[in-house]
């Protein structure tokens, strides 16, 4: 891993989400941590390791730090390739209330740390959503439209969405008005 400086433009990577109904809205959720992505608001990473570790005789407490940390696994994750995000999404076990499983492009900015298969960022917002598993694609696209980014239904597929960067390519930088507002 190598730390990267704060970036003028976001790094564009890939990740998986679940879409769950909450109080008349359909919200993106992280498949790993209990974390909701609110439409129109950037997600800011925090380090949850401080609260989980520190049991006497086990793992020492992680010192408070800005996420993502150099010697910690905290941060908002994004993969280099759509294929990796699809493989990850295909292993998800939807929790109660899940209406769809998605992959998508996500813009990471602020402090960004490069990892073996992608990046961990301090700030993030989706930039394009692809619905993989759902019942009513059109209704889901309308509901997810609250995020203000393109939403497409590509169905259950093992292939990357058309136009997705292939494995090994450098990340494309996110350019557009959405990044300025976040």
Walk me through what this model shows.
With 182 residues, the chain is α+β, with helices and mostly antiparallel strands. It has one domain (2-44, 76-181). The chain has four helices and nine strands. Strands 1, 2, 3, 4, 5, 6, 7, 8 and 9 form a nine-stranded mixed beta sheet that branches. A hairpin with a 6-residue loop joins β3 and β4. The protein is globular. The two termini are 26 Å apart. Residues 51-58 and 165-182 have low confidence and may be disordered.
Any descriptors?
182 residues; nine-stranded mixed beta sheet; single chain; globular; alpha+beta; 14% helix; disordered C terminus
Mind sketching the topology for me?
Layout: E1 2-4, E2 11-22, E3 25-29, E4 36-37, E5 43-44, H1 49-52, E6 76-79, H2 82-90, E7 98-114, E8 118-133, H3 137-144, E9 151-153, H4 177-181
Parallel strand pairs: 8-9
Antiparallel strand pairs: 1-7, 2-3, 2-7, 3-4, 5-8, 6-8, 7-8
């Amino acid at each position: 891993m190598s730390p990267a400086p704060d970036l003028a433009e976001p790094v564009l990577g890939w990740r998986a989400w679940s879409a769950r109904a909450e109080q008349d809205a359909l919200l993106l959720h992280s498949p790993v941590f209990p974390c909701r992505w609110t439409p129109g608001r950037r997600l800011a990473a925090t380090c949850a390791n401080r609260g989980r570790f520190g049991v006497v005789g086990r793992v020492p407490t992680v010192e408070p730090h800005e996420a993502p940390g150099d010697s910690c696994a905290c941060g908002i994750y994004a993969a280099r390739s759509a294929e990796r995000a699809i493989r990850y999404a295909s292993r998800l076990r939807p929790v109660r209330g899940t209406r769809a499983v998605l992959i998508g492009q996500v813009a990471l900015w602020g402090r960004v740390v490069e990892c073996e298969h992608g990046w961990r960022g301090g700030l993030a917002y989706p930039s394009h959503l692809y619905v993989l598993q759902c019942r009513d694609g059109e209704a889901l696209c309308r509901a997810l439209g609250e995020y203000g980014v393109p939403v497409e239904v590509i169905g259950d597929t093992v292939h990357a969405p058309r136009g997705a960067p292939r494995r090994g390519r450098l990340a494309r930088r996110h350019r557009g008005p959405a990044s300025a507002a976040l």
